[in-house]
């Protein structure tokens, strides 16, 4: 193997380590099983977003009511209505919240395993989620951008497990990736 080729491989491994660490924290039965419907996704998003209880994004008050017929919260102080996705990447999206969760899991899995070029084509995503090519491309772009950020809300929602192994300080990137790959 040439020196240049070896450097490219190391770079690929280092780039994939973050994705593999995220992948290893996905639910054991998968996102589809952990979040079987939109209501479970909304509950999880609300719990992660507001661990101390729902807070108004406008005034910060915690005296919040729920308009069940519209799945909206309403602040009793300033009367602002907002959804669980307000102010997030998923806000005003026509896609179901569960679709966002599943797509995020698929993106994480593809990048962790190095299969993004085969599994994350625009046409493939459009077919899988039954959306237009343009919507699929926007979804993929938004997910890749957001999931790379530490502390991301969507990432925190779907990554429910702890990392099953801890990294030793002097472990080379290739070895750490191999440990992550083999972890159960």
UniProtKB/TrEMBL annotation:
Pfam family name, one: Zn_ribbon_IS1595
Q: Which InterPro entries match?
A: Transposase_Zn_ribbon (IPR024442)
**Taxonomy, superkingdom:** Bacteria
Q: What are the residue boundaries of the Transposase zinc-ribbon domain, all occurrences included?
A: 39-81
Query: What name appears for this protein in its UniProt entry?
Result: Transposase
- Species this chain originates from: Tabrizicola soli
